[in-house]
Amino acid sequence: MTEDLSPAERYAAARIRAAEQATALAPFRDLYEFGLDPFQIEACEALEAGKGVLVAAPTGSGKTIVGEFAVHLALAQGRKCFYTTPIKALSNQKYSDLVKRYGHEKVGLLTGDNSVNSEAPVVVMTTEVLRNMLYAGSQSLRGLGYVVMDEVHYLSDRFRGAVWEEVIIHLPDSVTLVSLSATVSNAEEFGDWLDTVRGDTEVIVSESRPVPLWQHVLAGRRMYDLFEEETDHGGRGAARREVNPDLVRMARMENSRTYNPRERRRGKMVREADRERERRQRGRIWTPGRPEVIERLDAEGLLPAITFIFSRAGCQAAVQQCMYAGLRLNDEESRQRVREIVEQRTASIPGEDLHVLGYYEWLEGLERGIAAHHAGMLPTFKEVVEELFVRGLVKAVFATETLALGINMPARSVVLEKLVKWNGEQHADITPGEYTQLTGRAGRRGIDVEGHAVVLWQRGMDPGALAGLAGTRTYPLRSSFKPSYNMAVNLVHQFGRHRSRELLETSFAQFQADRSVVGISRQVQRNEEGLSGYREGMTCHLGDFEEYARLRRDLKDRETELAKQGAAQRRAAAADSLEKLKPGDVIHVPTGKFAGLALVLDPGLPAGRSNSHRGYEYHDGPRPLVLTAERQVKRLASMDFPVPVEPLERMRIPKSFNPRSPQSRRDLASALRTKAGHIVPDRHRRPRAEAADDREIARLRKEIRAHPCHGCDEREDHARWAERYHRLQRDTRQLERRIEGRTNTIARTFDRIVALLTEMDYLREDEVTEHGRRLARLYGELDLLASECLRERVWEGLSPAELAACVSALVYEARQADDAVAPKVPAGKAKAALGEMVRIWGRLDALEEEFRINQAEGVGQREPDLGFAWAAYEWASGKGLDEVLREAEMPAGDFVRWCKQVIDVLGQIAAAAPAEQSTVTRNARKAVEALLRGVVAYSSVG
Description:
By secondary structure, the chain is an alpha/beta fold. The chain is globular and about 110 Å long. The relative contact order is 0.07.
């Protein structure tokens, strides 16, 4: 081809090739055995051009290569690069990857409980660590050229998301930001915000999966494709995807075939042939069991697989079920290799702890190629499962959704047992974003030709709804940013109040709120145009029709109000009369299906709350149980008594009366008719309407009749226009209130926090007091409570174990609230200190209410939870793991996680405690040493 070019063209082509070879990207590309995808090249070129980048791409597409190029650039330029991740496990994994490429001397690690070579040119860290470094003005920030924020879509997390925005806002302008995100539907909006706060930012969005994904539904013995065969399974084209008609037909048949016990009781009305057909159908379609699913996937070559079960107990049970079923997915050579790796990785765990941790059952499952993966497991156990899965030595993992949050564990198949999960408050359908995140694990790049997502059939499943989940790319990034007390004092210290307020107004939360206001403002403008048209339509030549319409509206409102009052009074009078009824009263039921003569058997419960076997039940009034003259025993409702009821007679109810006996009912109903059948009940006369004597109504009617517009021939036409005008005006005012509520929301919250901190002497105008400087070093949900405890010397004189117990109340939060049993706490000084902490929290809670700081909005101090105090005390006192876990009734993984969080806060307290509280500083450090032993100290890096 080059022979056909002119000398000038050959020279130009040579210049282009030379320029490409001169870039940093060329040697970087040579580090990989495979070619880079177009989106990766585009992002890397933008980075080399000095721009920040936002890369939004599906799980497993290789977006971390862009982050690795930032590391490459930093080392080539002699600058630093910080690589941040949302969770420690991801930090450990990325640290291992970078060490393999660049060596230990160039790569460091900083997490809450690990510090390795922290002054290296490349440091992997959790996002919170970087936030704390920014506020502390750490010397490590010198020479920082690049920051990679992996899994940046975490800023939607309502508990931790604010940290990502804090980092993005406060990073020096000289730092180039690399943001890596899952596929989100508003990447451009997020990119616009990054452009505003960080400068020139390139947005690169890739929606194509590197490995095509096939979607299935497993029902009984058959695996149905979710979409028809000829459609676009890879999600890379624009073809419309139609739901498989065979699956739709099966679902329609199964969902309409409901078992009816009444039909069964009728027996002869259902032919035997129909029953036999139903039995055969029921035998063909069922929800397969867990061992059955794994065997099916193994037979079809679809392992390794991750089965998502939204329950820790469910994951453990699944492993047990597969083992009881005799499932073995590894041969003898693989079993030996598994045992070698496990024994090597767990060699540091004392033998007495292995039994407590369920080691031997866990090892047996691993040798068979089966494992669970969830937050309740010991971190070392989870890491071993991850390593064995990546090596292909574990082929079936049962996991909670936390595995989908970035851990590099791709599989050939992903199985979803159900499409409903517990969200902390209720069982809710998973969202399209969650479905995409979970199924994104299916398909290993460079290994699998295609990935498979399998949803297990459940009765009532709608294939159309499932196709909507699978086909929807709506995963919007929503800011969860809220100012905190610690944030406020750090900002005021660095920038002063005014500048801090301006900085907070640049948050993504305010950016989104302001954008939403734009649409509402346009609607307000359109409404105002409509109002001027309606105002013209109701113009009357005789006078001010708007004034006349207001009088009519006031009259209508007053009449409605009096009618409601009258109805309420009649209901109250009726309820009062029902509460006076006694068993044996003969009454006349005025309306309803059972109107007529009735005998009261049980007057029912009065209005309010009552206890029952189902818990508390609420009643809006008495519901008497009566026997009618027609021999029916019924529980009546308040709606059957629109007017008060009076007993007509009294009757004795025989002790032998049985309401379930037809003979008893017949005899008593006959006695009722004999006793009171001749009595004609008094007709209840409705009292004179209050509107007839109401002075306000009389005044309004008089003014309406006297108004000039009352005599207009087109009065009712004008009135219709006036009614439309009134409705539109009401809607417009609501929109204006919404605008007012969304404008400057973050800054207003900040103002309230600053006002409270000023009241408590943490701030004085732009000055941060000694108390404020202490608060600036305390990070956590209960930062202000911790600071107040130091201020009031609550922890002075506590032993290290007692201090650990008290600090645990600042971090621990039970997974499910249990108010029935008071948590066990250490006696003596620790108990008194915990009580004092709760008292201080009560004072802070009252202050927050006074300053309108709302916990429901994610701002403020929740009540300290004492549920981990005893476990922390026992462990810090040197008790054995078996005893501590048994008393705590807590999985080892949770225990380790909470201990590490207590250790983190103890470290902050040791650094923040005033010099005069030297015993607190000393004992906090001793408490860290006491907690950091055994299972808590097992921490693998690399």
